[in-house]
Amino acid sequence: MSHHLDTPLARQNGRLYIDDLYVFPGDHSTVFVMDVNSTITGPDIEPGFHPEARYEVKVHIDGADFEALTWRMSFGERDGGGVQAVRVHALDGEEARDDGADGDLVLEGRTGESASADGVRLWAGRIADPFYIDLSLLNIVNAAVKDGTAPDLSAWRPEQASNSFADTTVESIVLEMSHQHRQLHAGARAGVWCVTKLATDAGGWHPVNRAGHPMMWPIFWPDDTDFSNPANQRHPSADFGAAGKHIGDQVAAVVSAAGTSADPDVYGEAVAWALFPDVLPYMVGTPASYGFAVRNGRTLADNAPEAMLSLVLNAGVNSGLRPSVAGHLRKPQFPYVVPA
Q1: CA 117, CA 115: separation in Å to the nearest integer?
Q2: Residue 26: which domain range?
Q3: N-to-C CA span, the chain
Protein backbone atom coordinates (compact mmCIF):
# COMPACT_ATOMS: atom_id res chain seq x y z
CA MET A 1 0.00 0.00 0.00
CA SER A 2 1.35 3.41 -0.89
CA HIS A 3 2.40 5.70 1.94
CA HIS A 4 3.04 8.90 -0.04
CA LEU A 5 3.82 10.81 3.19
CA ASP A 6 0.14 10.74 4.11
CA THR A 7 0.64 9.43 7.64
CA PRO A 8 3.10 10.17 10.47
CA LEU A 9 4.15 6.52 10.33
CA ALA A 10 5.19 6.89 6.70
CA ARG A 11 7.41 9.83 7.55
CA GLN A 12 9.00 7.92 10.43
CA ASN A 13 9.81 4.93 8.23
CA GLY A 14 13.36 3.86 9.02
CA ARG A 15 13.87 2.85 5.40
CA LEU A 16 13.92 6.57 4.59
CA TYR A 17 16.14 7.66 7.47
CA ILE A 18 19.82 8.09 6.60
CA ASP A 19 22.13 6.77 9.29
CA ASP A 20 25.53 7.48 7.75
CA LEU A 21 27.36 8.70 4.66
CA TYR A 22 30.95 7.65 3.91
CA VAL A 23 33.25 8.75 1.09
CA PHE A 24 36.73 7.27 0.66
CA PRO A 25 39.17 6.00 -1.98
CA GLY A 26 38.90 2.49 -3.36
CA ASP A 27 41.00 0.82 -6.04
CA HIS A 28 41.62 3.78 -8.38
CA SER A 29 38.09 4.80 -7.52
CA THR A 30 35.87 6.74 -5.16
CA VAL A 31 33.53 4.84 -2.87
CA PHE A 32 30.22 6.21 -1.58
CA VAL A 33 28.40 4.36 1.20
CA MET A 34 24.89 5.38 2.22
CA ASP A 35 23.32 3.58 5.21
CA VAL A 36 19.64 3.62 6.20
CA ASN A 37 17.16 1.70 8.36
CA SER A 38 19.18 0.85 11.47
CA THR A 39 18.00 -1.74 13.97
CA ILE A 40 19.18 0.57 16.78
CA THR A 41 15.49 1.50 17.15
CA GLY A 42 14.54 -2.16 17.64
CA PRO A 43 14.70 -5.52 15.89
CA ASP A 44 11.20 -5.31 14.39
CA ILE A 45 11.95 -2.74 11.68
CA GLU A 46 10.50 -3.23 8.23
CA PRO A 47 13.43 -4.73 6.31
CA GLY A 48 14.83 -3.67 2.98
CA PHE A 49 14.71 -0.46 0.98
CA HIS A 50 11.50 1.45 0.33
CA PRO A 51 10.20 0.44 -3.12
CA GLU A 52 8.55 3.82 -3.69
CA ALA A 53 11.61 5.85 -2.71
CA ARG A 54 14.68 7.24 -4.38
CA TYR A 55 18.07 7.07 -2.71
CA GLU A 56 20.36 9.69 -4.20
CA VAL A 57 24.07 10.48 -3.86
CA LYS A 58 24.90 14.01 -5.02
CA VAL A 59 28.26 15.55 -5.82
CA HIS A 60 29.22 19.23 -6.13
CA ILE A 61 32.43 19.98 -8.02
CA ASP A 62 34.95 22.69 -7.09
CA GLY A 63 32.80 24.26 -4.38
CA ALA A 64 29.80 24.89 -6.63
CA ASP A 65 26.52 25.77 -4.91
CA PHE A 66 24.64 23.04 -6.76
CA GLU A 67 25.32 19.43 -7.59
CA ALA A 68 26.83 18.52 -10.94
CA LEU A 69 26.33 14.77 -10.50
CA THR A 70 23.56 12.64 -9.05
CA TRP A 71 23.39 8.88 -8.80
CA ARG A 72 19.84 7.73 -8.15
CA MET A 73 19.16 4.27 -6.73
CA SER A 74 15.66 2.79 -6.81
CA PHE A 75 14.44 -0.58 -5.59
CA GLY A 76 11.68 -3.01 -6.44
CA GLU A 77 9.44 -4.89 -4.05
CA ARG A 78 10.98 -7.64 -1.91
CA ASP A 79 10.48 -11.11 -3.33
CA GLY A 80 9.81 -14.24 -1.28
CA GLY A 81 13.47 -14.44 -0.33
CA GLY A 82 13.70 -10.78 0.65
CA VAL A 83 15.67 -9.83 -2.48
CA GLN A 84 15.00 -6.55 -4.28
CA ALA A 85 15.88 -5.44 -7.79
CA VAL A 86 17.96 -2.26 -7.85
CA ARG A 87 18.60 0.23 -10.63
CA VAL A 88 21.14 3.04 -10.79
CA HIS A 89 20.55 6.12 -12.92
CA ALA A 90 23.23 8.75 -13.52
CA LEU A 91 22.30 12.40 -14.00
CA ASP A 92 24.64 15.31 -14.66
CA GLY A 93 24.51 19.00 -15.33
CA GLU A 94 21.10 20.59 -14.83
CA GLU A 95 19.50 17.13 -14.76
CA ALA A 96 21.44 16.33 -11.57
CA ARG A 97 19.08 18.61 -9.62
CA ASP A 98 15.90 17.92 -11.58
CA ASP A 99 13.51 15.37 -10.04
CA GLY A 100 11.68 15.18 -13.36
CA ALA A 101 14.75 14.10 -15.32
CA ASP A 102 15.17 10.40 -16.05
CA GLY A 103 18.94 10.32 -16.42
CA ASP A 104 20.81 7.35 -17.88
CA LEU A 105 20.34 3.83 -16.62
CA VAL A 106 23.91 2.71 -15.90
CA LEU A 107 23.44 -0.41 -13.79
CA GLU A 108 20.89 -3.01 -12.77
CA GLY A 109 21.29 -5.62 -10.08
CA ARG A 110 19.84 -7.34 -7.04
CA THR A 111 20.34 -6.76 -3.34
CA GLY A 112 22.96 -8.99 -1.79
CA GLU A 113 24.86 -9.29 -5.07
CA SER A 114 27.60 -7.23 -6.70
CA ALA A 115 26.94 -5.60 -10.06
CA SER A 116 29.27 -3.64 -12.31
CA ALA A 117 29.31 -1.88 -15.69
CA ASP A 118 31.45 0.79 -17.35
CA GLY A 119 33.51 1.80 -14.33
CA VAL A 120 30.62 1.60 -11.84
CA ARG A 121 30.20 -1.03 -9.12
CA LEU A 122 27.26 -1.47 -6.79
CA TRP A 123 26.38 -3.59 -3.80
CA ALA A 124 23.27 -3.06 -1.70
CA GLY A 125 21.88 -5.02 1.22
CA ARG A 126 21.83 -5.43 4.99
CA ILE A 127 25.17 -5.20 6.76
CA ALA A 128 26.62 -5.29 10.26
CA ASP A 129 26.84 -1.59 11.16
CA PRO A 130 30.48 -0.41 11.45
CA PHE A 131 29.46 2.83 13.19
CA TYR A 132 30.51 3.09 16.84
CA ILE A 133 29.64 5.37 19.75
CA ASP A 134 28.55 5.13 23.38
CA LEU A 135 25.20 6.92 23.29
CA SER A 136 25.46 7.95 26.93
CA LEU A 137 28.23 10.39 25.90
CA LEU A 138 26.05 11.78 23.11
CA ASN A 139 23.21 12.30 25.59
CA ILE A 140 25.47 14.45 27.76
CA VAL A 141 26.45 16.68 24.85
CA ASN A 142 22.86 16.76 23.55
CA ALA A 143 21.69 18.17 26.87
CA ALA A 144 24.41 20.84 26.80
CA VAL A 145 23.61 21.93 23.23
CA LYS A 146 19.89 22.02 23.94
CA ASP A 147 20.20 24.01 27.18
CA GLY A 148 23.24 26.13 26.30
CA THR A 149 25.16 24.83 29.30
CA ALA A 150 28.55 23.30 29.94
CA PRO A 151 28.48 19.52 29.41
CA ASP A 152 28.49 17.63 32.69
CA LEU A 153 31.17 15.02 32.04
CA SER A 154 31.85 14.36 35.71
CA ALA A 155 30.31 10.90 35.56
CA TRP A 156 31.69 10.01 32.10
CA ARG A 157 34.26 7.22 32.24
CA PRO A 158 35.90 6.72 28.82
CA GLU A 159 37.56 3.52 29.99
CA GLN A 160 34.11 2.04 30.58
CA ALA A 161 32.66 3.07 27.21
CA SER A 162 30.81 0.45 25.20
CA ASN A 163 29.61 0.53 21.61
CA SER A 164 25.86 1.11 21.62
CA PHE A 165 25.76 -0.03 17.98
CA ALA A 166 27.33 -3.43 18.59
CA ASP A 167 25.21 -6.18 16.98
CA THR A 168 23.04 -3.69 15.07
CA THR A 169 22.51 -3.78 11.33
CA VAL A 170 21.65 -1.29 8.58
CA GLU A 171 20.68 -1.38 4.93
CA SER A 172 23.67 -0.17 2.94
CA ILE A 173 24.21 1.11 -0.60
CA VAL A 174 27.83 0.89 -1.74
CA LEU A 175 28.51 2.74 -4.99
CA GLU A 176 32.03 2.76 -6.43
CA MET A 177 33.03 5.12 -9.23
CA SER A 178 36.23 4.72 -11.27
CA HIS A 179 38.67 7.61 -11.52
CA GLN A 180 38.09 7.34 -15.27
CA HIS A 181 34.89 9.31 -14.73
CA ARG A 182 35.28 12.58 -16.62
CA GLN A 183 34.37 14.74 -13.61
CA LEU A 184 35.15 12.53 -10.63
CA HIS A 185 38.79 12.04 -11.58
CA ALA A 186 41.76 12.10 -9.23
CA GLY A 187 42.34 15.64 -7.99
CA ALA A 188 38.72 16.75 -8.36
CA ARG A 189 37.43 18.73 -5.38
CA ALA A 190 34.08 17.22 -4.45
CA GLY A 191 31.32 17.99 -1.97
CA VAL A 192 29.05 15.01 -1.29
CA TRP A 193 25.64 14.61 0.29
CA CYS A 194 22.79 12.14 0.02
CA VAL A 195 19.03 12.30 0.25
CA THR A 196 15.99 10.03 0.37
CA LYS A 197 12.86 11.02 -1.54
CA LEU A 198 9.39 9.55 -1.57
CA ALA A 199 6.80 9.66 -4.33
CA THR A 200 3.83 11.95 -3.73
CA ASP A 201 0.23 11.59 -4.83
CA ALA A 202 0.72 14.63 -7.07
CA GLY A 203 3.32 12.75 -9.09
CA GLY A 204 6.39 14.52 -7.72
CA TRP A 205 9.12 13.64 -5.27
CA HIS A 206 9.31 14.85 -1.67
CA PRO A 207 12.73 15.02 0.07
CA VAL A 208 12.45 13.14 3.33
CA ASN A 209 15.91 13.09 4.89
CA ARG A 210 19.41 14.18 3.87
CA ALA A 211 22.94 13.85 5.19
CA GLY A 212 26.40 15.30 4.63
CA HIS A 213 28.61 15.78 7.68
CA PRO A 214 28.26 13.00 10.27
CA MET A 215 26.34 13.49 13.52
CA MET A 216 24.48 16.64 12.43
CA TRP A 217 21.03 15.30 13.24
CA PRO A 218 22.00 13.57 16.52
CA ILE A 219 23.74 16.70 17.84
CA PHE A 220 21.62 19.58 16.56
CA TRP A 221 18.21 18.06 15.80
CA PRO A 222 17.94 14.97 18.05
CA ASP A 223 14.18 15.27 18.43
CA ASP A 224 13.44 15.26 14.69
CA THR A 225 11.84 11.82 14.72
CA ASP A 226 9.12 12.74 12.23
CA PHE A 227 11.35 14.41 9.58
CA SER A 228 9.70 17.75 10.32
CA ASN A 229 12.90 19.82 10.55
CA PRO A 230 13.09 22.15 7.52
CA ALA A 231 16.68 21.06 6.91
CA ASN A 232 15.35 17.76 5.61
CA GLN A 233 13.77 19.46 2.62
CA ARG A 234 16.27 22.29 2.25
CA HIS A 235 19.00 22.29 -0.39
CA PRO A 236 22.51 22.61 1.12
CA SER A 237 23.03 25.93 -0.71
CA ALA A 238 20.43 27.46 1.62
CA ASP A 239 21.88 26.01 4.84
CA PHE A 240 23.88 28.91 6.20
CA GLY A 241 21.27 31.55 5.47
CA ALA A 242 18.52 29.45 7.03
CA ALA A 243 20.27 27.97 10.07
CA GLY A 244 23.81 29.31 10.31
CA LYS A 245 23.01 31.79 13.07
CA HIS A 246 20.99 29.19 15.01
CA ILE A 247 23.79 26.61 14.94
CA GLY A 248 26.40 29.28 15.67
CA ASP A 249 24.42 30.54 18.67
CA GLN A 250 24.01 27.02 20.02
CA VAL A 251 27.74 26.33 19.82
CA ALA A 252 28.59 29.76 21.23
CA ALA A 253 26.38 29.16 24.26
CA VAL A 254 28.01 25.81 25.00
CA VAL A 255 31.63 26.98 24.67
CA SER A 256 30.82 30.14 26.66
CA ALA A 257 29.40 28.08 29.51
CA ALA A 258 32.30 25.63 29.32
CA GLY A 259 34.91 28.40 29.10
CA THR A 260 36.65 26.79 26.11
CA SER A 261 36.71 29.88 23.87
CA ALA A 262 37.93 33.42 24.41
CA ASP A 263 35.34 34.65 21.90
CA PRO A 264 32.36 32.24 21.88
CA ASP A 265 30.36 34.14 19.25
CA VAL A 266 33.23 34.09 16.77
CA TYR A 267 33.89 30.42 17.47
CA GLY A 268 30.22 29.53 17.05
CA GLU A 269 30.06 31.32 13.70
CA ALA A 270 33.27 29.59 12.58
CA VAL A 271 31.75 26.19 13.38
CA ALA A 272 28.61 27.08 11.44
CA TRP A 273 30.74 28.03 8.42
CA ALA A 274 32.70 24.77 8.78
CA LEU A 275 29.54 22.64 8.76
CA PHE A 276 27.42 24.57 6.27
CA PRO A 277 26.63 23.90 3.53
CA ASP A 278 26.11 20.42 4.93
CA VAL A 279 28.13 18.55 2.33
CA LEU A 280 31.05 16.23 3.01
CA PRO A 281 34.24 17.58 1.38
CA TYR A 282 36.59 15.18 -0.38
CA MET A 283 39.58 15.57 -2.69
CA VAL A 284 39.23 12.64 -5.09
CA GLY A 285 42.15 10.23 -5.03
CA THR A 286 43.51 11.34 -1.65
CA PRO A 287 43.40 9.46 1.67
CA ALA A 288 40.11 10.07 3.44
CA SER A 289 39.94 11.13 7.06
CA TYR A 290 37.23 12.73 9.16
CA GLY A 291 38.81 14.19 12.28
CA PHE A 292 38.87 17.32 14.41
CA ALA A 293 41.57 19.02 12.33
CA VAL A 294 40.98 17.42 8.91
CA ARG A 295 37.65 16.74 7.23
CA ASN A 296 38.35 15.06 3.89
CA GLY A 297 35.79 12.39 3.14
CA ARG A 298 35.04 9.79 5.79
CA THR A 299 36.18 6.19 6.12
CA LEU A 300 34.32 3.35 7.79
CA ALA A 301 36.93 3.44 10.56
CA ASP A 302 36.89 7.16 11.38
CA ASN A 303 35.82 8.16 14.87
CA ALA A 304 33.48 10.83 13.54
CA PRO A 305 31.48 11.17 16.78
CA GLU A 306 34.64 12.05 18.73
CA ALA A 307 35.62 14.59 16.08
CA MET A 308 32.20 16.25 15.96
CA LEU A 309 31.71 16.39 19.73
CA SER A 310 35.18 17.93 20.11
CA LEU A 311 34.35 20.51 17.42
CA VAL A 312 31.11 21.53 19.11
CA LEU A 313 32.71 21.80 22.55
CA ASN A 314 36.03 23.27 21.33
CA ALA A 315 37.76 20.78 23.58
CA GLY A 316 39.07 17.27 23.15
CA VAL A 317 36.42 14.68 23.92
CA ASN A 318 37.55 11.12 24.59
CA SER A 319 34.85 8.79 23.33
CA GLY A 320 36.56 5.82 24.97
CA LEU A 321 36.29 3.85 21.73
CA ARG A 322 38.85 3.20 19.03
CA PRO A 323 38.43 2.03 15.42
CA SER A 324 39.39 -1.50 16.46
CA VAL A 325 36.07 -1.88 18.30
CA ALA A 326 34.41 -2.35 14.90
CA GLY A 327 37.42 -3.50 12.89
CA HIS A 328 35.79 -6.82 12.04
CA LEU A 329 32.90 -4.95 10.38
CA ARG A 330 34.84 -3.49 7.47
CA LYS A 331 36.89 -4.98 4.66
CA PRO A 332 39.73 -3.60 2.52
CA GLN A 333 38.13 -4.73 -0.73
CA PHE A 334 34.77 -4.21 -2.44
CA PRO A 335 32.09 -3.96 -1.10
CA TYR A 336 34.11 -2.82 1.96
CA VAL A 337 31.24 -3.68 4.32
CA VAL A 338 30.29 -6.98 5.96
CA PRO A 339 26.89 -8.42 4.95
CA ALA A 340 24.72 -9.34 7.92
Answers
A1: 7
A2: 8-313
A3: 28
